[in-house]
Amino acid sequence: MIYSSKGFTLVEVLVSIFIFSIIMLAVGSSFVSALNVQRHAFNVQQVQENASYVIDTILKEVRVSEILPPVPDSCVDTPAVGDLTVGHPDFGPIHYYMTGGNIIRENSDESLQLNSNAIEFTNFKFCISGSELRDGQQSRITMYASMRSTKGGQQEIIDIQTTISPRLLNN
């Protein structure tokens, strides 16, 4: 008796399902891995953009301001200070400080949060040197900041240090 086989056997179907499952598992793992890399890159980008905005805002205003009040060097004997007050020629006294993980810019007219809610500052300090009258030094402010993302499962942490010199030569 001759049998006509116009279909697949059970073994052939099971082997093809097994191979298909292995291929889909590999593709699915690659997709999940790519999503994690994308989230990580987005978090890093968000923290860097926020840090850049905050620092650029402070840099622009400090460059045309004078340090108020003139303080002895906070870099030598004492640790860095957590706030900074400068006298801006147009806006008057401007005070920068950190509270609740946010950087605040405060003057007589308004109080403004500089960073977005997507990041949190964990450290924000200033080291001030050369602000005393007739000390023979150009004023310099070194800013230390640490920030991290607040969204997503991966916490991206960035540390930044930069030095600012006001353009005013008061010595």
Q: Can you describe this structure in just a few lines?
A:
With 171 residues, this protein is of the alpha+beta class. The chain contains one helix and eight strands. It starts with 9 loop residues before the first helix and ends in a 7-residue tail after the last strand.
**What is the residue-mean pLDDT, rounded to a whole number?**
84
Shape: rod-shaped
Main sheet summary: 5 strands, antiparallel
Number of strands: 8
Class by SSE composition: alpha+beta
Rg estimate, integer Å: 29 Å
- The helix-strand sequence is HEEEEEEEE
Low-confidence stretches: none
Strand order of the largest sheet: 1-2-3-4-5
Helical content class: 25-40%
Distance between the first and last residues' Cα: 112 Å
In DSSP terms (H or I, runs of 4 or more residues), the helix count works out at: 1
Strand content: 25-35%
Structure description:
The protein has one helix at about 10-65, and strands spanning about 65, 85-90, 90-100, 100-105, 110-115, 120-130, 140-150, 155-165. The strands form 2 sheets. Strands 1-2-3-4-5 form a 5-stranded antiparallel β-sheet, with helices on one face. A 3-stranded antiparallel β-sheet has the order 6-7-8, with helices on one face. The chain is built from 1 helix and 8 strands; from the N terminus they run αββββββββ. The mean pLDDT is about 85. The chain has about 170 residues and is α+β, with helices and mostly antiparallel strands. β4 and β5 (about 110-115) form a beta hairpin. The longest helix has about 55 residues, at about 10-65.
